[in-house]
Every structure is written in C-alpha cells, then in structure tokens.
Automatic annotation (TrEMBL):
Bias-annotated ranges (Acidic residues): 52-63
Region named Disordered: 44-63
Coiled-coil segments: none
Organism: Cryomyces antarcticus
Domain Glycoside hydrolase family 31 N-terminal: 4-174
UniProt name for this protein: alpha-glucosidase
Length: 680
C-alpha cells in the first residue's frame, strides 16, 4: 500500500510503502523558493550630524545580504542581466535505509553515486546538470557534460524507489550518507545507511515525481510511462556505424564501403561530419568534393547500407544562403535579451540558432528535409544532431547566454537543458513527414543521433557520450556511463569506439571494438586530426580480431533486437547492471564494469586494462554459467577468473536461457533478413 503523509509545520512529505517510509521530502528543512522581483533602487539616506544611522534590518527592510550579483552577473566576458532577480528552487530528499543511489546522468564517475561533501574517495562539489560542450572532459568527476536526466533511483535489498526532479534549468545535486548504528539492545536488527540529497535549480518550479517501486523494473517502467519509452529502431541502427570527422569526398565514402567488403567486415551505416557541406551551410553539398551524393547513396543501398549526415542547430549567417534568409525573414531564430536575433559563433563562423520552442519553426524545419529541399538525399539517409546543448564558441561556458529569449519570451535559463531535446524532436518529426508515404503508408522509423539530451529524448533515437579520449581510462569509464544512462531511461547509448581525441594503440583499439560490441549504440568515430583507423587498416592479427567482434555483434542481432523491444514496451535497460538483474544481491549493487544483455542471459565483461589476459567476472547466483565460445562451466556466487587473451571476449551464457543467433556472415543487417536462426 502506498501513502503520502503530509506535514504542515514544518512542511514535509513522507512517501510510505507498506508502512515504511521510503522517501522523505524536506526532512532537513532545505526547501526554498526565491520569488521573482523587480530591482528597487534605494537612495542612500543622509545621516545628519549627531544622528545614528538606521540599520535596514531594524527598519524591517531585510538583512545586509550582498546583492551585488542579484540583478546581473559577469562571467567569462559575458553579463547575465537576471531581469527577474535571484530566482531559484531547492529541496532536500532523503532515502531512509538506502545506501546506493544511481542515475542523474551524464557524468563520468561510478554508477553508484558518490558523496559530494569531501572526504576520502568522495567529491568536493555537487553533481551538476547543465548541458555543455565540454572539451576533453575529466574522468571520475561530478562536472556537467552534454546531457541531463534529473532522475535518481535509490536501491537496497528487495527495494528500489526513485525521484524525478522535472526542471530544465541549471541544477545541482548534493549527496551525503549517514550510518545509523544498530541498537545493541535490539537483537537481530542491523544498522543501516540513509542517503540525503539536496536538489537546487536556478529557475522553474518544484515539480517532483516519486516512484515507490518496489523493484528496479517497476521504477524504470513507471518512469518510462511518464517520459516515454525508448524508440524501437530499425535493425540497421543496432548494427555497426563507421564514422570520422571527416570522410572528405563521395569517392572516399565509396572506397571505405568497398574495402569493408574486400576484408569481409560487416557494417550498416557510414557517417558524414560537417565537411560534406558547402562552406558549413547545412542542407547543402560541397559541389567539388561531393558532386554525386545520390550515386554514393545508391552504392550503399546495393548492400542495404545507410548514410547519416550531420545537421546542427546553428545556421550560417551568410548572404545568399536561402536557409538563413528564411530563418531571418520568418523570425524563427532565438533572440537576445533585447529582442533581436541572437548572433553567436560556431563551426560556420557567425551563426543564428533555430528556436525549436516556436511551433512555426518546427513546421519550417520539417519542410527542409523533404527530398526536393535537401537535394541529394535518398531514403537511406538519416540525421545526426550535434552541438545542440547549444554549443556557442563565444558564449558563456561555451553555450548560449541565460538571458536569451525563446518563443513566448521564455528565458533560456529556464529551458536550457531542454534545448537539445527540442531539436531532436523537430528532426525526428521531419524525417517522419519526409517518409510518410513509404512502407505501406505506415512511415519509416527515423534514426536520429543526439549529443545533448533531457528526460524524454529517448523517444526519438540514440545518444553518445561525446568527445572522449583514446586512452584506457575513457574505455573503462564508458561502461558505467552507459549503464547509468540505461537505468535512467535512455538505454540507446554508446561511446566513440577508439576514442575521439588521440590515436589509440592497436591493442586499445581492438579491446574497444570488443567492448563496443556490447554498447547499444555501436559507432567508431575519430577527430579530424587523428590517423585513419578503419578496422581493415589495423593489420594482422588486429583486423581479424576486430572482425570477430563485429561478427559476434551481428550474429547476436536477434538477442539485441529482443532487448531493444523490451526497452520500447516496458522501459527496461538494454544493457543491465548487476543490481537490476539481481536486486537482492547486496555484494553486487555497486558493480558497474560488467553487464547483462536485456533478459537474454548473456553476461559480458569487457576488458578495459592494458595487457590483460584474464578478468574476474562476478556471478550473483548459483546458476551455471557457460562460456559463449567453448562452453566452460562456471558455478557459484562470487568472482571467477575467465580467460581474456586479446582474441577473446569474456562472455558467459546464464543457465536456463535460449540464446538466438544468426551465424551466416553478411555485409549488413538488412541482408540477414531471411537467414535461419540458431538456438543455443
């Protein structure tokens, strides 16, 4: 039975399940709402000789607080005008009896969130949620990254609860834990830990949802009902994606496509970064380097392959460019605080930003993707929305000023973390409209990748963890990051295989492909200044080992598609941490370096350390586990050493499952459509 017990003085709410308090609002009295207020200019009062100065606090005029940043604040050469004053909302949320909390991505630390008040092994700052374009981000940090999901779960043996803080303004979350010792006079009752969290946002309302479980699946399912379940993509999107900044010509793309076939390496999608455009003007092609995009796309289509092209929200401010001319004439761009079109700097130089909070802008954006408008695109072309935090090179913290104005005179500060979602939503619906006559009038499921996200972005497609680095630490961090996203409702997640910045060693590249084979979104990507690293360039034995990893992914596409389908109907993560699968196993609650693939019974432990020849895999039950490749049996709770030489992926099959596979090697997922199944 669920209950909410509301107290008036002092205000508080206890959320009770079966007679036990699970979540407590304002138990520490930290609830706060700062009201909007105009600035009142006070004239200093003249004090005559012999008179005592009047103390404002004694005169009922408030305390001597420092108001120097209440009405404007300067940072990095930009001044935020704060027209409504120092607005903010805050509240403390306590999880009595819960030691582990998960969620609030996107951050680089462990899946089980750390305390934020200092001390050994803890952070010294709160977790920050403020979508930002972060260059070469730090490891194991509460610093903000590209996306924000203000959804936290607390878990203990046999119980999971959650809280969703629905606020798109800049948000900080403090976490502390307290140990409650057992009473020596009460035999059999052990001590417990309480987790205390303090949520504070710069603007918005107190709009908080509580989920009382009691299982992890109950919580993620209810959260999915509220914000939307993840998209069920077309099968090609679950295959391998080949990308770099940049494939420089349409012939370059054709050559990469041919070489994948020559080396018998499967892939489904090749990607184009910004250099395909004519001078970084979106919805155009460079006439010199991409003179025949339709011919390129036709070659890809011969093997049922796709092309993804990047379209960012910044529109180049250049005369004679029809897109920007329409954007300005129809007044569809974001405005600055003075009500004029906001001009900033991004890849094209001087740019304007589409305001996807404006319904008229959505209608216009939808029209741009039609085949007669985006000339040179065919039905096998899909879209990548990058830089949508939004990234503004000359803006405060590399983003848009908070006092910019969106449609309806909403300040950007109130909507910032939603910005990326609105662009992806616009693009998703544009692709739906583009292809509405296809597939027996049922439409074609779009594929859109986003870098910036918020709760609800999962409905439209995939995300990736941004500009990582080619080192072992970033490879290791990718596993808990993807697991955290999965339990936070955005399971179609991945990381750049090989690392975006830098050149990986051949061993690191190989291990990253083996790990990437267990990312829901599986894409190799690299910076423009890195060496080319397509799998066929690695040389023997690395090319052959990488090919094995890719073929493993393709042979298991039936299992992957099943896991994606589950996520699309009940909100379960596609790849799952130990606590989600074994919610009573206390030893495994914080494990975040191994993962289960849906409910298929497949347990993978990617190798993330240099020179490793074995890994310890943790088993949380007494079921027998079978090595995927040689059927070695592992039984018994606890850690088991599993061989992991360079050509080996530690992958176990849990007893009691039937594993569906398709074993015939093919060039792409689409060509496997009529292949037989193998059941293990």
């Amino acid at each position: 039975m669920f209950q909410a017990v509301i107290k008036h003085a002092p205000f508080g709410v206890e959320f009770v399940r079966d007679g036990e308090v699970q979540v407590n609002f304002n138990g520490k009295g930290l609830m706060n709402m700062e009201h909007w207020r105009p600035k009142i200019e006070r004239e200093p009062k003249e004090v005559k000789e012999g008179e005592e100065p009047v103390v404002e606090e004694e005169a009922g005029m408030g305390s001597f607080e420092d108001e120097s940043t209440w009405w404007d604040e300067s940072f990095g050469g930009n001044t935020d005008s704060k027209p409504r004053g120092p607005e903010s909302v805050a509240m403390d949320v306590t999880f009595p009896g819960y030691e582990h909390v998960f969620g609030i991505p996107e951050h680089t630390g462990p899946m089980s969130l750390k305390q934020t008040r200092g001390g050994e092994g803890n952070y010294n700052d709160p977790y920050r949620l403020y979508n930002s374009d972060v260059f070469e981000y730090d490891m194991d940090s509460p610093m903000t990254l590209y996306g924000s999901i203000p959804f936290m779960q607390a878990h203990k043996k046999d119980s999971t609860v959650g809280v969703f803080w629905l606020n798109a303004a800049e948000t900080w979350v403090d976490i502390t834990k307290s140990k409650v010792s057992s009473n020596l006079l009460t035999l059999g009752i052990e001590g417990h830990a309480d987790t205390h969290t303090h949520w504070f946002s710069e603007g918005g309302l107190l709009d908080v949802f509580v989920f009382l479980g009691p299982t992890p699946k109950d919580v993620t399912s209810a959260y999915g009902e509220l914000t939307g379940y993840t998209q069920l993509p077309q099968q090609f999107a679950i295959g391998y994606h080949q990308c770099r900044w940049n494939y420089v010509t349409d012939e370059d793309v054709r050559d990469v496509d041919r070489k994948f076939d020559k080396f018998k390496i499967p892939y489904d999608v090749i990607w184009l970064d910004i250099e395909y455009t004519d001078g970084k003007k979106y919805f155009t092609w460079d006439p010199h380097t991409f003179p025949d995009p339709l011919g390129m796309e036709k070659q890809l289509d011969a093997h049922d392959r796709k092309l993804v092209a990047i379209i960012d929200p910044h529109i180049k401010n250049e005369g004679g460019y029809p897109i920007v001319d329409e954007l300005k004439s129809k007044d569809l761009a974001v405005h600055n605080k003075n009500g004029d079109i906001y001009e900033g700097w991004c890849w094209p130089g001087s740019s304007y930003w589409i305001d996807c909070f404006n319904p008229a802008a959505l209608t216009w954006w939808k029209s741009l993707f039609r085949y007669d408008k985006f000339v040179g695109t065919a039905r096998n072309v899909f879209i990548w929305n990058d830089m949508n935090e939004p990234s503004v090179f000359n803006g405060p913290e590399t983003t848009m000023p908070k006092d910019n104005l969106h449609h309806g005179n909403w300040e950007h500060r109130d909507l910032h973390n939603l910005n990326g979602l609105t662009l992806v939503n616009a693009t998703y619906n544009a692709l739906l409209a583009r292809d509405k006559t296809e597939e027996k009038a049922g439409g074609v499921r779009p594929f859109v990748l986003t870098r910036s996200f918020f709760s609800g972005s999962q409905r439209m497609g995939a995300m990736w963890t941004g500009d990582n680095q080619a080192n072992w630490e970033h490879l290791a961090a990718s596993i808990p990051m993807i697991l955290s996203l999965g339990v936070s409702g955005f399971p179609f997640a991945g990381a750049d295989v090989g690392g975006f910045f830098g050149n990986p060693s051949k061993e690191l590249l190989t291990r990253w492909y083996q790990a990437g084979a267990f990312y829901p979104f599986f894409r190799g990507h690299a910076h423009i200044d890195t060496r080319r690293r397509e799998p066929y360039l690695a040389g023997s034995p690395y090319t052959e080992i990488i090919t094995q990893a890719l073929r493993l992914r393709y042979s298991l596409l039936p299992a992957w598609y099943t896991a994606f389908h589950e996520a699309s109907v009940n909100g379960s993560p596609i790849v799952r941490p130990n606590y989600f699968v074994h919610p009573t196993d206390e030893r495994g609650f914080a494990i975040d370096d191994q993962l289960y693939l849906g409910s298929t019974g497949l347990l993978a432990k990617p190798v993330t350390t240099e020179g490793a020849e074995s890994v310890d895999v943790y088993l949380a039950d007494h079921e027998s586990y079978y090595d995927y490749f040689d059927f070695t049996v592992y039984t018994g709770k606890g850690k088991h050493s599993v061989p992991a030489k360079l050509d080996t992926i530690p992958l176990l099959m849990q007893g009691g499952h039937i594993i569906p596979r398709r074993e015939r090697p093919r060039r792409s997922a689409g060509l496997m459509k009529w292949d037989p199944f193998t059941l293990v």
